[in-house]
Amino acid sequence: MYQHLFHRTLAIFFGCFLSCLVGTTVFAQGEEAVIRKNLKERMPHIQPIDEVRRTPMPGLFELRVDGSDIYYTDASGHFLLQGQLIDTRNQRNLTEERLQKITAIDFKTLPLKDAITIVRGNGERKMAVFEDPNCGYCKRFERDLSKLDNITVYLFLYPILGKDSADKSKAIWCAKDPAKSWQDWMLRDQTPVATQCDTASLKRNVEYGQKMKITGTPTTLLPDGTRVPGAIDMAQLEKLLAKQ
Fold it and tell me: Looking at residue 83, which CATH number applies to its domain?
C-alpha cells in the first residue's frame, strides 16, 4: 500500500515538473514572439531579427540583427538599447565576447589562393590579415609584423580606400615577387610598378571581406577564429599567437 502510494506520488511529482518545464518553454517562446512583433511594427529598419536570446541580466534580451549587429531590449520590446553589456562581478564585456563568437571566421575556409603568403623562420605560427596599401595603421602594423619570427602571414589585399588603393594592390599582386613588392611599399615607401595580370582575386577579396563584415583595415584573423580589428602592438599579438 505504502509502496503504491509512493510511486503514485512520484508520478504526480514528475508530471508537475514536466508541465512546469513545458510551461516555461512556451512562456519563453511567447516572449520572443512579443518582442519580434512589437519591434517589427515600431522599428522596421532593424529587421529582420536573426536571433533573440536571454542575457544574464534579468529581463534583458539580446537581439542579433543582420548577422552581427547587437541590440538589447526588454521582454515587451518597449525599449531598445545599443551599447556594451558589462558583467561587473567577473569583469567581462559580454557584448564583446558575443561579437567575437558570432563574427569568428573558420580559418580553414579562408580562400588562401587569393592571399600573398609571407613566411619568416619556420612559419609554424599562422595568421591572416586584410590590409589596404594606403592604410596608415596598416603600415604601422606591418612594421611590427616584420619583427615576428616563425610565422606564416596570409596577406589579403583589401583595397577599400579608393581607386589608388586598387591601383597599388593590382601592381603589388602582379609583381614578380608580390611579398617583396608589398613590403617594399609598406616598409620602405617604394611605389610598386604597374604591370598587367589577372587581378580577379582582388575583387574576390573585397567581396569576401564585405560578406564577412570586415569593415576596416588592418583586420587580423587567427586559427582559433579570433578576429582582431585594428593595429594591435607586438605584445598583444604575441599573446594571441601563443593561444593558438
Answer: 3.10.450.70
